[in-house]
Specification:
233 residues, alpha/beta, four-stranded parallel beta sheet, 10 helices, 11% strand
């Protein structure tokens, strides 16, 4: 498995109520028909910089405020555009031609999204935790079990829980990703992600998901994990 083959397989996926950021173009919210190509280039660059990564942090599914527009899991467009107060875009893609893919003229975006791009609170917590504990930016890959964006019917800018069938499909992509960097330690973000991975025979440690009041616990668990201490699985 190489990066281009992996990306080709991702781009080939299509399903109802799922947005594939590396394939699909949304005329209502994307700034140009080239948006999928921009997101694909972002992901290719992201993976190229991390072929020797030691950690794979994996959540459940892509969200509309994160990878939907950035093309990179658990990474908001606002980070890539240099509009984030804590995380620098160079931490994600190094020296790169950073471009937004959301349309600032779209009526579906709120004023903040129009001015700075989309922002996902979970992405902020994850990136801040990794940076705070000295984990080199290119030593970790962020991903989702279902790598695409599942959304509600008639509402592209929404999130829904992926189905069991979608998780079945997604685990196949996760295994492909592990072929690209086979020595990574897998860290599941959230118990649901951990239970899903283990059900498919993928060993992992679990940390609390940052959402729903879990940010402080997530930070503490990541600190313990990266600090080399004994971690309770």
């Amino acid at each position: 498995m190489d990066i281009n083959t992996f990306l080709d397989k991702l781009q080939a996926y299509h399903s109802e109520l799922v947005f594939n950021p590396w394939r699909d173009y949304d005329p209502d919210c994307d700034i140009t028909s080239q948006a999928p190509a921009i997101r694909s280039a972002n992901l290719r660059r992201y993976l190229e910089l991390r072929t020797k990564a030691h950690y794979l942090f994996i959540a459940e599914a892509l969200g509309y405020q994160g990878g939907h527009f950035s093309g990179v899991a658990i990474t908001s467009e606002r980070i890539l555009l240099g509009q984030h107060k804590d995380v620098q875009p160079e931490s994600v893609l190094g020296e790169w031609n950073y471009q937004r893919t959301s349309n600032p003229e779209s009526a579906l975006l709120n004023p903040s999204q129009k001015a700075k791009g989309f922002n996902e609170p979970t992405d902020t917590v994850v990136w801040n935790a990794l940076n705070r504990h000295g984990l080199a930016a290119f030593d970790v890959i962020l991903w989702n079990i279902f790598p695409f964006h599942p959304h509600k019917a008639g509402k592209l800018l929404s999130n829904r829980t992926p189905s069991t069938a979608e998780l079945d499909i997604g685990v196949g992509y996760a295994k492909m990703l592990l072929e690209l960097a086979p020595k990574m330690q897998i860290v599941a973000i959230g118990q649901k992600a951990a239970d899903t991975l283990r059900r498919y025979g993928i060993d992992c440690v679990a940390v609390r998901h940052p959402s729903m009041g879990g940010a402080e616990t997530f930070k503490a668990q990541v600190a313990k994990l990266l600090g080399g201490g004994v971690y309770d699985r």
